[in-house]
Design goal:
By secondary structure, this protein is mostly helical. The chain is built from 29 helices and no strands. 49% of the residues are buried.
Length: 755
């Protein structure tokens, strides 16, 4: 399949990918539920009841994301269950602002404490706050009977939506699986293009050490984002893979994991090769192959989204084998290590492994091969997130330094201050808009709050203009319902992907919904009110980021230790002797679980470091050693991926009795280096090497001989990286007043010398 090349065609294809994505499908599903339920209640009980039922749907919808069928109902239930009594309480206290504030503030603390459950708790917190804020947006009830009636309509809409969302998720499950796999393939293709951009020779006069730094940061960010994306895809795609179609999709996801490992290994030796201008042409040809493979992965994802059978692919191994690698005999001596030509051949071979995985991916999508059912079934139960609710996160919340507790207190104080200011404003009848802005802008970190603040202000300006223009035309009730439905689809669909779009749609949704609840609102005056309220709310959210802050440096030590422990466990299992002593195809579940934790822990550390860049410099963690630790963690994963690839794919080219001892000793050395809290420099450099390579020895051609010496070299490089990891961690974890641990020479930047 040829990808479009003209700018218009590229934009059209990008728009089509968005239109066919899982988040747009989910947004449309939510909007259809809103239209169906609010419209039905409108016809049954009247316009006011329909508007209240619509609020119930809006409040129940935030947790509704593409998710496994198992546990969907219980995922949706908590938000309406907590929201209904709070909606009623606000209705009853509508005309008593002081007592209303006394309910609003502790309820805000309760709502935001749901963030103790992490990503599962955030939608619940937002839903509960929306219930109270939209209840404030209604006219004051004339009595208890009207408050009960509105709450009944609110609860009816929420209850109906729980049933609807459970059924809709069931109906869309098959499509969601395909869309999530396609989205993951797009991310893998983007990572492949970033990897390919490194295959460029550098001028001899330039600083080779400095050039990869920006690309390495981009690779770390993309790898971290891919790790999060893969886990979300796992949860849905690996659920009950009982049918052949589901099994093929699950098999494709497992191939993606292998591709990620091969992409990691493809970076090895690049820095040595880019400094040799004679290999510029070979690197350029390998770069073109990688870029072509990335385009083929993208085309495969396009075909899946567009209900087409993917086109068959051509094996690019012959193209890689034809790449000319000039040999310089003077550089092939033991003193120089392996020659650049030999390194280039090894690099081309690893690109060939990526080619093999892309071919398998394509053949599996076309139904030409069958997935490894043993691995699929093993991954089914062990690699998906739990769906049951537990009290453990809530019980662990009550520590003064716990970020969720501090954020809940911070949010309650911000809402209290915002509510007080709103009551003093001359248009106090619209006080809910300030609170709504605080709720959607205030986040657990300063960087996220700043991003939301800017998007919220810009989105509100645009949304207000659109809403005022719409309301000034005095549309019919049906037209208003259609506008609310469309705005809900966009706001829900892009909430995670592009909050600016969500902010525009949410502003239209909020103003039109408020108009439906408050007959007679002046749309012209509302424009200036909403802009002022948004600016006040955004400023309040920004200001309260500095109240009881949870700076990232407070979380970094635990994240560093998690990363080190995960790397040590992954090394121990990746270097285990089980694969050497058996010839079966056991799934190696323990190693796969350790690999997932290694990527997930590094992802969490990368994201925390990125968030810390927006914090005041005085409270930032030590960024330089953090960046080095992330780079070395990435390099250790690459080395171990290359070793594992040799053990799995080239086992017949190893002399087993020569590598068994070094494998075991390397695992022990890495465990000694990073398996415990680092309190000083690693002792490893002063000890004997873990392998039998006491010094430089001639390395045979890896394509014609035994590759055991190459594997031993990988083990020595992995051991050296582990020592550097310990030193990086020691500089991060030691108090600023203590003497920093001396750095060991950073050999990994120049010594990646094996295939």
């Amino acid at each position: 399949m040829q990808l479009a090349t003209t700018p218009l065609a590229r934009r059209t294809r990008a728009a089509l990918r968005i239109a066919l994505s899982h988040y747009v499908a989910n947004g449309l599903s939510v909007a259809f539920g809103l239209f169906l339920i609010s419209g039905g209640v409108h016809l049954w009980l009247g316009a006011v009841a329909g508007a209240s039922a619509a609020v119930g749907v809006i409040v129940a919808s935030p947790p509704d994301q593409p998710s496994p069928r198992r546990g969907k109902f219980w995922q949706m239930l908590p938000a309406p269950l907590i929201s209904l009594p709070l909606f009623f309480a606000v209705q009853v206290l509508h005309t008593a602002p002081i007592r209303l504030g006394m309910v609003l503030i502790p309820a805000t603390f309760l709502a935001f404490s749901a963030m103790a459950w992490g990503k599962r708790g955030i939608p619940i917190a937002i839903a509960v706050m929306l219930a109270m804020i939209f209840s404030m947006a209604t006219p004051a009830p004339t009595g208890l009977h009207e408050a009960i009636e509105r709450s009944w309509h609110f609860g009816l809409g929420a209850a109906l939506y729980i049933v609807y969302s459970t059924l809709a998720n069931l109906a869309l499950n098959a499509r969601y699986r395909v869309q999530l796999i396609a989205d993951t393939l797009y991310s893998v293709a983007a990572l492949m293009r970033t990897e390919a951009s490194q295959f460029r020779a550098v001028d001899e006069t330039s600083d080779v050490r400095d050039t990869p730094a920006p690309l390495l940061g981009q690779l770390l960010r993309e790898t971290a984002a891919l790790a999060d994306q893969i886990q979300g895809t796992r949860d849905l795609v690996l659920e009950s893979p009982r049918t052949p179609r589901r099994q093929r999709l699950a098999g494709m996801l497992l191939i993606v994991l292998e591709m990620r490992d091969q992409l990691l290994a493809s970076e090895l030796d690049l820095e040595s090769l880019t400094s040799h201008p004679g290999h510029a042409r070979a690197l350029a040809e390998m770069r073109r192959v990688l870029e072509d493979l990335a385009s083929e992965v993208t085309a495969l994802a396009d075909a899946m989204l567009m209900f087409r059978r993917p086109a068959a692919l051509t094996d690019r191994r012959p193209q890689l084998a034809a790449i000319h690698m000039p040999e310089d005999p003077a550089q092939a001596s033991p003193q120089h290590g392996p020659s650049p030509a030999m390194l280039a051949r090894g690099l081309a071979s690893r690109v060939g492994h990526i080619n093999d995985e892309v071919l398998r991916l394509n053949q599996l999508a076309r139904g030409e091969i069958e997935p490894d059912l043993a691995v699929v079934r093993a991954n089914w139960q062990l690699f998906v997130s739990p769906t049951a609710w537990s009290w453990r996160p809530f019980l662990a919340l009550w520590k003064w330094d716990a970020p969720p507790l501090r954020h809940a207190i911070r949010a309650a104080l911000a809402i209290a201050a915002g509510y007080g200011i709103a009551l003093l404003m001359p248009w106090g009848s619209h006080d809910y808009w300030i609170l709504l802005t605080i709720v959607v802008v205030l986040r657990g970190s300063l960087s996220q709050t700043l991003e939301r603040r800017n998007a919220r202000v810009a989105g509100t300006l645009v949304g207000c203009v659109l809403a005022v223009g719409l309301l000034a035309a005095h549309p019919s009730a049906l037209m208003l319902l259609l506008c609310v439905t469309g705005a809900q689809a966009v706001a829900h669909g892009f909430a995670v992907r592009k909050y600016l779009i969500t902010a525009v749609a949410a502003t239209v949704l909020g103003l039109v919904q408020a108009h439906m609840l408050n007959v007679g609102m002046s749309p012209t005056f509302a424009l200036f009110e909403r802009i002022a309220d948004t600016l006040i709310g955004a400023a309040m959210a920004w200001a309260f980021c500095y109240v009881l802050p949870s700076w990232e440096r407070g979380q970094v030590p635990a994240l560093v230790m998690r990363t080190l422990n995960a790397q040590a466990l992954h090394a121990r299992l990746a270097l285990g002797l089980g694969q050497l002593r058996t010839v079966d195809t056991a799934p190696e579940l323990a190693w796969r679980l350790a690999r997932r934790e290694a990527f997930d822990s590094l992802s969490a550390l990368v994201q925390a470091t990125q968030r810390s860049l927006s914090e005041p410099r005085a409270v930032q963690p030590p960024l330089e050693p953090l960046e080095r630790l992330q780079a070395h963690s990435y390099q250790l994963l690459a080395q171990l991926s290359a070793v594992k690839s040799m053990l799995l794919l080239r086992r017949d080219r190893l002399t087993l009795h020569e590598v068994e001892g070094p494998l075991a000793r390397t695992a022990v050395r890495i465990e000694e280096a990073i398996g415990s809290a680092p309190i000083g420099p690693s002792p490893l450099p002063d000890q004997a090497p873990a392998t039998a390579l006491g010094g430089a020895i001639p390395l045979p051609d890896p394509f014609d001989n035994d590759i055991s010496p190459w594997l031993l070299r990988r083990l020595d490089l992995a051991t050296a990286i582990a020592a550097q990891l310990r030193d990086d961690a020691a500089r991060i974890l030691q108090p600023a007043s203590s003497t920093p641990a001396p750095a060991t020479p950073d050999t990994t930047l120049t010594a990646n010398e094996a295939p």
